[in-house]
């Protein structure tokens, strides 16, 4: 299932980038000279310049693919549906081109195939869509969890998280660049430096550090990564998520473990309910 989502994400990103760049170039230069196009190719259409086609290409085709990619990265089921819609929009765009723009090009056939592939992958993924929290039990069942970003400040929220995981029965190992022990917990500079490799890792680091941590987790043989998110942007970055999924690691995003460590009360109960609705 992860492979299908990753393939769909890569197609969405490719379509978004090429459509946005191509569309914006047409908007900036409606005569088409930047792309070596002539308005004469639209002789069978209603437009005399590429301004309107450029807006449609960038906003509709590129915008839908971009939004689909963002939702997929966030783990939302809506991203699968929007990816299918983006594929249909791309296919519709190419079909209109084939009718109105002469002559046709091999690239149009390639993009028509891409659109069909987006739609097919989206339909398959929707039919086999898994619970977005399906990997939570595996994470919470891990004997040892590496808490990457455990702070040396006792009042930091990472300590609340460590205490909750320990109360749940897990062994928590801190990962900190300089501290060897934090509030009685052993700490190591890297996940791969931990003598007994942990099965899971909880990332409580800024997003710009997440990708490097993921590669460290891959080297350590971590099987499940939870990108923590509470209030704010959270720890996940698109590149970090893609790297983890490409390595076959189970990924959890957009949530806090306190939403699942019983008993769930207060704001975490509300957040869990809201995430279930959004998924």
Fourth-tier CATH superfamily name of the largest domain: NAD(P)-binding Rossmann-like Domain
Please state roughly what percent of the residues sit in beta strands, choosing from under 5%, 5-15%, 15-25%, 25-35%, 35-45% or over 45%: 5-15%
Q: Helix- and strand-based class? A: alpha/beta
The oligomerization state is single chain
Tell me the total number of β-strands.
Answer: 7
Might you state the CATH topology name of the largest domain? Rossmann fold
Instruction: Provide the gyration radius in Å.
Output: 23 Å
Please explain how this structure is put together:
It is built from 9 helices and 7 strands, in the order αααααβαββββαβαβα. It has 2 domains: 2-127, no CATH class; 136-278, 3-Layer(aba) Sandwich (Rossmann fold). The protein is of the alpha/beta class. 53% of the residues lie in helices and 11% in strands. The two termini are 16 Å apart. The model is unreliable at 264-279 (pLDDT under 50). The longest helix is centred in the first third of the chain and has 27 residues, at 2-28. The chain has helices at 2-28, 51-73, 77-100, 106-127, 136-140, 157-167, 207-220, 238-246, 266-278, and strands at residues 144-148, 171-175, 181-182, 185-188, 200-203, 224-228, 250-255.
């Amino acid at each position: 299932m992860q492979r299908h989502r990753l393939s769909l994400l890569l197609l969405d990103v490719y379509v978004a980038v090429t459509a946005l760049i191509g569309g914006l170039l047409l908007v900036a230069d409606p005569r088409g000279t930047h792309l070596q196009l002539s308005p004469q190719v639209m002789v069978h259409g209603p437009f005399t310049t590429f301004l309107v086609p450029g807006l449609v290409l960038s906003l509709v085709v590129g915008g839908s693919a971009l939004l689909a990619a963002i939702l997929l990265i966030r783990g939302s089921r809506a991203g699968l549906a929007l990816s299918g819609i983006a594929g249909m929009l791309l296919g519709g765009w190419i079909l209109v081109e084939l009718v109105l723009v002469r002559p046709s090009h091999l690239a149009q056939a390639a993009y028509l195939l891409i659109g069909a592939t987006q739609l097919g992958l989206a339909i398959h993924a929707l039919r086999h869509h898994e619970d977005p929290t399906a990997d939570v039990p595996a994470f919470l069942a891990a004997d040892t969890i590496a808490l990457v970003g455990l702070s040396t400040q006792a009042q930091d929220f990472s300590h609340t998280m460590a205490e909750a995981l320990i109360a749940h029965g897990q062994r928590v190992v801190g990962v900190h660049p300089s501290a060897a022990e934090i509030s009685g917990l052993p700490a190591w500079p890297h996940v791969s430096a931990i003598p007994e490799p942990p099965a899971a890792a909880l990332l409580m680091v800024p997003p710009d550090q997440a990708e490097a941590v993921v590669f460290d987790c891959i080297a350590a043989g971590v099987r499940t990564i939870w990108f923590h998110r509470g209030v704010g942007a959270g720890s996940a970055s698109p590149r970090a998520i893609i790297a983890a999924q490409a390595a076959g690691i189970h990924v959890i995003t957009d949530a806090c473990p306190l939403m699942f460590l019983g008993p769930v009360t207060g704001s975490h109960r509300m957040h869990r309910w809201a995430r279930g609705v959004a998924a």
